[in-house]
Amino acid sequence: MHSRYSQWVPATLVASLFMIVSLTVGATAPRSSFNIGAAGGATTQYLPLIIADNQPQSIGFLPVFVDNDLLGDITDIAHANDGRLFVVERPGRIVVIENGQLLGAFLDLGGITGGPNWEEGLLGLAFHPNYPQTPYFYVQYTESGLYKRVVVARYTVSSTNPNQADPNSAVILMRINKSANPPNLPDPYSPVHNGGDLTFGPDGYLYIPVGDGGPDPFEGVNGDPDNDSQNLGNLLGKLMRIDVDPDGGLPPECGGTANYSIPPDNPFVGQGGCDEIWAYGLRNPWRISFDRLTNDLYITDVGEWLFEELNFVPAGEGAGWNFGWNCYEGSHEYRPGCNGDFTFPIFEYARGGGCASIIGGFAYRGSAYPILTGHYVFADYCAERLWTIKRNFSGAWGVREYPFSDFNLTTFGEDVNGELYAGRSDFDGIYRVTAP
């Protein structure tokens, strides 16, 4: 077993607003090493926590549009290369907000998305990078009904009204089947661990993270019982990379339709696994984002019982990487006896025996708050925690936790100028992230 990337930060060393723990790091020697318990007894090294230069002293949230009656169960926030924000609601609706005003419903898929579980429904949205010249956008949702399949579909914006989509324009790109639940569970297929994000990378390809498909550990079944996340023969627990142009690359292999193609440099093309796969070993990735300046990729992955994790992929790397689940939860062994080349998180924190669900954000590249520049902002939904993290010139990560309570964030988004926004579920609304 070998750890490719292991400069992670123990959560017990996180700096808060009122008490900062600072361990000065030299540019050469790492602080320590530890045994990760893999077969063969390999060791891995990590750099200590530091406090990044020009760390924001506080993070604020400025209301943009808040209304429990008009917004609900917010799962994603996107822009269309203009001043509008598109807000995704889990029950199936996308609404448009511009200049603090709700302009109405852009699309309503409530008749086909499901169901009652809070991890089901309409989960992700991305506009074509060439929009509006190419008037397409893409959504990820879970199907209502028995099989709980994860669907990626393309829709077209109305030619007469840019604030409305054509509901009859659906083109299904992918249908991802789930493994059947163990026979002792009441439902034949699990509603959870769908992932749900999708975003275009700097290479113009669509990146689609999908979870391991469940079941929920609260049902008494250990994580990923069919080992789907480590199985390159299916798309569960994977980060996929596809060309939305069906004539742009190689034929599809595992996605169930012919409405997209495979980039020829995907890592498992011709290697026996699904050609759509770009990386694997994920449990329930919520969310992913590219740094619009550096092209680095951040992936947050919700843990099982013990650890939440933040993964980092430097620009130009990541193809074929294995993030470890279900062999590892974070950097900690989950299923004994695994061998392989695993990529561990740059940051993890213990769940502490209570509810935890990491919410991925973005590296700030706006202009309104220079002190926040380059800091990746992320949170925890049910533990009500908030952090920023940034790498310094020596390669070590500086992280800071901010006092934060009574604020259940569900997602983050960027506008066209790189300003950050957050969605809240307890008082449904959209808030602008600030660094006063």
Description:
The protein is mainly β and 436 residues long. The chain has a domain at 59-362: Neuraminidase (6 Propeller). It has strands at 2-3, 32-35, 43-46, 60-66, 74-78, 85-89, 93-98, 101-108, 122-127, 136-142, 150-157, 165-176, 199-200, 206-210, 238-242, 277-280, 285-290, 297-301, 307-313, 328-329, 332-333, 341-342, 347-350, 358-363, 376-380, 385-391, 397-402, 409-414, 420-424, 429-434. The protein has a 4-stranded antiparallel beta sheet, with no helix packed on it. Strands 5-6-7-8 form a 4-stranded antiparallel beta sheet, with no helix packed on it. The radius of gyration is 21 Å and the shape is globular.
Q: What's the quick description here?
A:
This protein has 436 residues and is mostly beta strands. The protein has strands spanning 2-3, 32-35, 43-46, 60-66, 74-78, 85-89, 93-98, 101-108, 122-127, 136-142, 150-157, 165-176, 199-200, 206-210, 238-242, 277-280, 285-290, 297-301, 307-313, 328-329, 332-333, 341-342, 347-350, 358-363, 376-380, 385-391, 397-402, 409-414, 420-424, 429-434.
